[in-house]
Amino acid sequence: MRASLLQIDVRPDEQVAARRSRVAALVREQAGADLVVLPELWPVGAFAYQDFATHAEPLDGPTAQAMGEAARAARVWLHAGSIVERTAPEGSDAEDGPLYNTSLLFAPDGELHRVYRKIHRFGFDQGEATMMAAGDKIVTAHLAGPGTTIGLATCYDLRFPEQFRLLVDAGAELLVIPAGWPERRRAHWSLLARARAVESQAYVLACGTAGTHAGVEQAGHSVVVDPWGEVLAEAGPGEETLTVEFDPARVAKTRAEFPALRDRVLGLPRP
After folding, report:
1. Residue 269 in domain
2. Cα separation of 151 and 171, whole Å?
3. 101: which residues sit within 8 A by CB, 6+ positions away?
4. Is-catalytic flag, 137?
5. How many Å apart are CA 194 and CA 37, to the nearest integer?
6. Contact status, residue 200 vs residue 172, Cβ threshold 8 Å
7. From the CB of residue 67, how many other CB atoms can be counted at a distance below 10 Å?
8. Is there a domain that residue 268 lies in?
9. Which of 57, 85, 128, 155 is catalytic?
10. Could you tell me the residue range of the domain that residue 110 belongs to?
11. What is the CATH number of the domain that holds 192?
């Protein structure tokens, strides 16, 4: 399986529409990959709270349309990072409902295949935590072709191992985590990505943003980790395309050779 993580620089001097077009072109260049992954909230910036409402869009909005077309052109599975999703209130066609931090997964035919709304909102009673509603669903998707099941999580979710246990119980073999992680906590980013891989006995593909936006320097250092916690590839701090090839079958082999998941107790479900 070949995966490409696009570590996007969310530059404050670049308009959202221009960045959308630029990123769509980068996705098109990944023809030959099985899976392409983008970071969290790359259209607007994960810390640009003041711009969330302005650039919120529905699931069929301009970012979804551009990413679906790019996935179809490249014939790839595309995890398009996340957008600020504006929803309609129940029973209404108006788009003035809650905002969500929403990940979009597109199939190689360009169709929207899965939607994941971020469960754990960051901000400690500020920013995202107060401006966005929380998702409540564990989301996985089977990727035909590569023949593996991915589990979806976003940024701050990485700190909550129980979510990843539920993803594993739902069949996840590869955990995809777009993020807008700050540089000042980069050590946690690297540590937690490896921890989630080891405890889940799964691949982790963690894709972050680069540069500085809303005054917050981003960690970059997108990373691919194997089921034993070994780093297969890691980006630097700037904008970069990180491409790696790996064998999804190694997940089942690892779990069979070292069946730690089978030995769980404390009332947790066993595979």
Report:
1. no
2. 8
3. 40, 41, 82, 84, 85, 117, 118, 121, 128, 132, 154
4. no
5. 18
6. yes
7. 27
8. no
9. 155
10. 2-263
11. 3.60.110.10
207 is catalytic: no
Could you tell me the pTM of the whole model? 0.94
In a domain, 270, yes or no: no
Asked if residues 61 and 80 have their Cβ atoms less than 8 Å apart, the reply is no
**Nearest alpha-carbon partner for 80 in 59, 50, 52, 54:** 59
| The one catalytic residue among 57, 85, 118, 234 | 118
Considering 40, 57, 173, 234, which one is annotated as catalytic? 40
Number of domains the chain contains: 1
Closest C-alpha to 151, from 164, 136, 162, 160: 164
Active site residue 40: yes
Q: How far apart are CA 54 and CA 131, in angstroms?
A: 12
Residue 31, beta-bridge partner list:
33
CA distances from 96 to 49, 63, 83, 173, 246 (A): 17, 18, 16, 37, 43
Name the E strands within the chain: 2-7, 35-37, 77-86, 99-106, 112-117, 140-143, 148-152, 174-178, 203-207, 212-213, 216-217, 223-225, 231-234, 240-245
What is the pLDDT at residue 269? 59
What is the pLDDT at residue 127?
A: 85
Number of other residues whose CB lies within 10 A of the CB of residue 66: 19
pLDDT at 90: 65
Question: What's the pLDDT tens digit per position in 94-145?
Answer: 567 899 999 999 999 999 999 999 999 998 888 899 999 999 999 999 999 8
Pairing of strands 99-106, 112-117: antiparallel
Give a yes or no: residue 218 inside a domain. Answer: yes
Q: Which residues of the chain have pLDDT under 50?
A: none
CA distance 68 to 72: 6
At residue 92, the pLDDT reads: 60
